[in-house]
Give the backbone structure.
Amino acid sequence: MTSQATHSEELRYPILLTKSQFVRKHIEHFEGEGELGWQVVNRRTNGMLKAGAVVEVRSRPEAKRPKILIDEERYFHWVKNQQIYLDIVLRDEISAMETHA
């Protein structure tokens, strides 16, 4: 690996998009902005914020509402992890149902 390649890797910034920009760019995954909006509203309870899929930017410390940006790479990583979690939960529930049947 060259020193130039190492340097460019260090300067890699995440792609941050507003909700509207994100939905327009990935329209094949959404029926509308409301779908993503629901996920963002629940970001503290659904793990999006903890996963870094959502970035809150405040223009001033006293600002009541932050500007919400979606980290493109981390969002899809979060979605993938949600699906893995659902697969495990559903598998366990089906297994439990079969055991009690």
In short: The beta strands are 16-17, 54-57, 67-71. The CA atoms of residues 56 and 68 lie 5 Å apart. The radius of gyration is 18 Å. Residues 16-100 form one domain.
